[in-house]
Amino acid sequence: MSITLSEAESRRLMAEYGVPVSPFVTGASSDDVLAAVEADEGVTYPVVAKLCGRAIAHKTERGLVRLGVADADALRAACDELLGKAVPEDGSVEVLVSSMVDGNRELIAGLNDDPQFGMTVMVGVGGILAEAIRDVSFRLVPIGEVDAAEMLDDLSTQRLFDEFRGEPEADRSAIVDALVALSRLGAAETGLRSADLNPLILVDGKPVAVDALVEIDSDA
Amino acid sequence: MPDLSSLFDPKGIIITGVSNHPGKFGFVTLHNLLSSGYEGRVFPVSREPGAVLGLDVLGSIDDVPDGAADMVFICTPPAINEELLRQAAAKGVTAAFCAAGGYREAGPEGAEAEARLIDLCRELGIALAGPNGQGVVSTPAKMCAQIVAPYAPKGKIAIASQSGNFVSSFLNLANHTGVGVSRAVAAGNASVLGIADYLEYFTDDPETAVSLVYIESVEDGREMFDRMLPLSGQKPIVVVKGGASAAGARAAASHTGALASDDAVFDGMCRQAGLIRAKDVEEAFEAAATFASQPLPSGDRVVVVTTVGGWGVAAVDAMADTRLDPMPLPDDLLAAIDAKLPPRWSKNNPIDMAGGETRDTVPEILQLVAEHPDVDGVVLLGTGIQSNTAAMMRRGPFFPEHGLERIVGFHERQDTRYAEAATEISAATGTPIMVATELATTDPSNPAPASRRAAGQLCHASAGRAVRSLHHLAGYAAWRSARGLEV
After folding, report:
1. Residue B71: domain span
2. Can you give the pLDDT of all 220 residues of chain A as single tens digits?
3. Do the chains contact at A122 and B254, CB–CB below 8 Å?
């Protein structure tokens, strides 16, 4: 059996290995959340607020995400509302707040412990259609920079990396660094089953994960 | 790792289960071995002594002189094979190809017999190929030790297959194209020796330039990766995979897990390990044949040279799905070509000579293109059309009068010359030159494909197929170059 870490736990694990995640804070109550946002220079309005907890894997489907929260008053209201949506099965929950990041291009990256090949790392075209588009490339962990660069070359949708709707060309080396960091995590963490960064948004050409989900063995 | 030299270069071979009946495996193996010209000693063994194909059949392996054979080819049923292997080992045998079935594939009892076979071969120090495999071919040893046909011309492609019928397919393609084979082995149940073991041998084998493998199931993908990675940088390994593996991706909570189809992960493993993955058996053979006979390109920039029109367009179209770049012609190259052709030529890539060539034009243009430092690869199309015309003249009612004999001779010499020029220029410049015409299949006797074949070079049957082979060469070259390996 496996369990999923909460988004906050997943993000912290990612950040520990140098995988770029958008700045965020968490709190178990509206007061805690507002205080944390106030204290953290990295998190600026407008923000996104989400209810997160180990048992909550798919927030969007349950309406547990508030986008474009403009100021502290709106955030307090959003926190109250989200905490009010928690059900007993969710267990321990908190609100995660991060800055809204701006970018039209979404990648997906992740890890998966494959029954035949062991731990693998993936990059692909991301967003909610990722599983329908299936433009992805896998490698066996660990990878080096050369492997990561070739993973990007493998994708069919190469135009994603060119200048795009007023945004600069993708910074391939920054994406490569993120994949190598992800691979380091996959190599080092025992009991890890899979991990998703979806989407990994290109912000000024550089990748920033705005969601993270890590699945581990329940006895790990 | 056992030494496989007595499997691929045995000094003497014992065949068990040799029968007088020309339909039986033992008979066919003996026949194939003798017909391929094997020069070592051959010892047919059977419970019914006599003579088969002019050789005395021994009643027991005990009658084989000590040290005279180092390989045993087993066509007898499981019940007696353990005893035969002990006798063979006592005579100095160090390799066995077990063609016999009735093992793991036959159920629980067979699986037990196979387990005993494995233990016994380990105990006896015998390298075991099979069981339940069709055989082994080794052209340097003039050895076709197979229960089926065919044999193949000598060459530099080494084949290992998890399916015996694809050994036959590859050998048939070698016979058809004239691009030959060094070794070929069917892994059978692969109870001891598997694909990776054969690849390790091929990589060290001076007779082999490229390995070609057919894989159906991957039991331990990580082990396969770990063993292939040190090999692929030494010699190219072309892989074709059949079927989806039984062990599918397990249900995962993540998108990544859901996207991890067996094929996507296998494909990534190939890219990472530098394995050249072809989509089917024909493409795999043609890639291997090209690796065996052409230099590696130093990049992806390709120029297409064609005697006329549409073929060139098709070649450029085919590049859209590949890493290859139909480069614009550099100014100096364009000027140099312009001096050789009448004004109606295309003046871009593809170089359409528009029928403007005279006696020496094709070799001259080919030389200019292949030696240009910006050009990494060349595709030559439209050879054989002169000989095609000549062939119709030969068959028609007017030959050899009306001046036909002279022009037919000219046409045929020209196509021969183009093929020779492609080989010579490619070798001299280090730039791969693909030659493609459907005449390779529709009329292999045409001097264009026939001369190509005589030179040990592949004549691709279409521009698209030539482009695919060049794509595989360029992909492997890029993999090497990204890792600081020589290209």
Report:
1. 5-289
2. 888 999 999 999 999 999 999 999 999 999 999 999 999 999 999 999 999 999 887 787 888 999 999 999 999 999 999 999 999 888 899 999 999 998 999 999 999 999 999 999 999 999 989 989 999 999 999 999 999 999 999 999 999 999 988 999 999 999 999 999 999 999 999 999 999 999 999 999 999 999 999 999 987 6
3. no
Looking at residue B476, what is its pLDDT? 98
In chain A, CATH 3.30.470.20 covers: 106-217
Query: Domain tally for chain B?
Result: 2
Instruction: Kindly provide the ipTM of the predicted complex, given to two decimals.
Output: 0.94
The class that CATH gives domain A106-217 is alpha beta
CB contact under 8 A, A138 and B250: no
Q: Is residue B215 domain-resident? A: yes
Contact A116 B222 (CB under 8 A): yes
- Min Cα distance B275 → chain A (Å) is 13
Question: Is the same domain home to B306 and B258?
Answer: no
Are B135 and B16 in the same domain?
A: yes
| Low-confidence residues of chain B: pLDDT under 50 | 245-249
Distance from CA of A58 to the nearest CA of B (A): 10
What CATH number does the domain containing B378 carry? 3.40.50.261
Q: Is B374 contained in some domain?
A: yes
Q: What is the pTM of this model?
A: 0.95
Q: What is the pLDDT of residue B310?
A: 85
CATH 3.30.1490.20-classified regions of chain A: 23-99
HEC string for chain B: CCCCHHHHCCCEEEEECCCCCCCCHHHHHHHHHHHCCCCCEEEEECCCCEEECCEEEECCHHHCCCCCCCEEEECCCHHHHHHHHHHHHHCCCCEEEECCCCCHHHCHHHHHHHHHHHHHHHHHCCEEECCCCCEEEEHHHCEEEECCCCCCCEEEEEEEECCHHHHHHHHHHHHHHCCCEEEEEECCCCCCCCHHHHHHHHHHCCCCCEEEEEECCCCCHHHHHHHHHHHHCCCCEEEEECCCCCCCCCCCCCHHHHHCCHHHHHHHHHHHHCCEEECCHHHHHHHHHHHHHCCCCCCCEEEEEECCCHHHHHHHHHHCCCCCEECCCCHHHHHHHHCCCCCCCCCCCCEECCCCCCCCHHHHHHHHHHHCCCCCEEEEECCCHHHHHHHHHHHCCCCCCCCHHHHHHHHHHHHHHHHHHHHHHHHHHCCCEEEECCHHHHCCCCHHHHHHHHCCCCEECCHHHHHHHHHHHHHHHHHHHHCCCCC
CB-based contact B482 A146, cutoff 8 Å = yes
Say what the pLDDT of residue A84 is. 93
Residues of B near A (CB-CB distance < 8 A)? 218-222, 225, 245, 247-250, 252-260, 262, 264-269, 271-272, 479, 482-483
Classify residue B119: in a domain, yes or no: yes
In a domain, B487, yes or no: no
CATH code: domain A23-99 is 3.30.1490.20
Do B282 and B347 lie in one domain? The reply is no
Q: For position B15, what pLDDT does the model report?
A: 98
- Domain boundary pick from B255, B271, B289: B289
pLDDT by residue (tens digit) across B18-67?
Answer: 999 999 999 999 999 999 999 999 999 999 889 999 999 999 999 999 99
